[in-house]
Amino acid sequence: MTTQSKNPMVQSTQDILKKAVKAALERKQKLGQYSVMWKENKIVTQGEDAPQTQK
Known about the structure:
Helices cover 44% and strands 18% of the residues.
């Protein structure tokens, strides 16, 4: 997300969600699991055991 909200409740919610996603990704990495994300209009997998995505 690149836009910042002026509403403190919205900003707080965004901050909490970012923190939760970061924690979940770190946990998956520690467990040796791969993650799947959406970046630049593409599906991206990260991790040693991540399947190769088809282009």
